[in-house]
Amino acid sequence: MIQRVPMDAAADEKAEKASTLLRAPHPFVWTILYMPFGALSGFVGVALTFLATQNGLSIGEGALLNGANLLTAWLKWLWAPLVDVTLSPRKWYVIATSVTALGVLTMSAVPLGPSTLVVLLVVIAITSLINSIVGMSVESLIAGSTPPEQIGRVSAWFQAGNLGGAGLGGGLGLYLLKKLPKPWMSGAIMATLFMLCCFALSATPKVAAHVKHGSAFAAVKHVAKDLWVMLKTKGGLLSAILCVLPVGTGAAQGTLSQAEVAAFWGAGAEHVELMQGLVSGLVTTVGCFAGGYLCERFHPRTTYAGVGIALAAIAVAMGVCPATVKMYILWCFIYAFGVGLAYAAFTAIVLEAMGKGSAATKYNLFASLSNFPIWWLGLLLGFAAGKWGARKMLFTEAALGVLGVIIFSISTRVVKRSKLAA
Q1: 332, exposed or middle or buried, with CB in 10 Å at 0-12, 13-18, 19+?
Q2: Mean pLDDT confidence for 410-419
Q3: Residues whose CB falls within 8 Å of the CB of residue 110, separated by 6 or more in sequence, listed in order
């Protein structure tokens, strides 16, 4: 049994808040630590995906690369409790980052083509599974050191690392794959950059495993109880519903990165490298800070739904405008900014709903729910682009985004009338 020492609740809460404020690092630390998580998605979703259709793969097969990367993303709640109840978040971060670095090196060394597609998909899926623990460990550190009034600000810096990292992994990864004599060299450079991020751990608080004593079963049971209590609140349930809907996913970015799709606008490798890589990452990062600002002034769920409508409008506008390189550049910029807004709002939603206990499990339940529509919508958009063309692919994403917001609005009315705790 886990022994608990009775304490005065008010004094305990005051002491914990003061301790949190003292331990909290500058949010830029979260940007650095989260970069390996985002950079893997960028490397697979932009660099490898663009080269896929240049090496004999169809648009649908190219979409499978990103699908393999996201496959474990919506299942990671299954192993998230391990991070909560075993090693400390710092130790998990070093282990997972090291294996992710090895995975990137391996997938860059696999020749890209139809005959090696299955091998590459397996490597991507395994690396993605381990990479999810990079995110979990950072999320646990954030939950243990972020006061409520800093949620919007921390969400912005946190997602700047995710999406800025995706831009780095996509843009720099594609550039290196094209310019270096051997593809494995690009993987080696990316792997080295991943490992350098570990040095930022020195600025983080020492957050131990959530449960220090008792059996493994008791620890997992405690985590499950925390999770259930959260989902039985109006805020927790509404946040879960919003996450599972195809709202604010940014799924079109992966499809727009494919060579055959980009060619519809006359865009080549240099344009994709620019728009879906480093520069896009910078624009998305600005969007993250704008999203954090909005979440400090409006409720995060309201912000997220509004951004979902905005992204749908952007997709429609890109679909109806002339198919020129300038339009590709312009709308990819605007779309990237909107994705930054959405991701910052998502993080604010989750941090508000989850509290501090069992952080890895709670955050990754929401992340898994939100990654599910990104996964299936990405595959659907790849199919739509190959079957109906780039314009109808964008219209498809927009229609599903608006439908998702409508469903959420109805759900909000129903849940608010329920007897669940606020």
Answers
A1: buried
A2: 87
A3: 116, 119, 120, 123
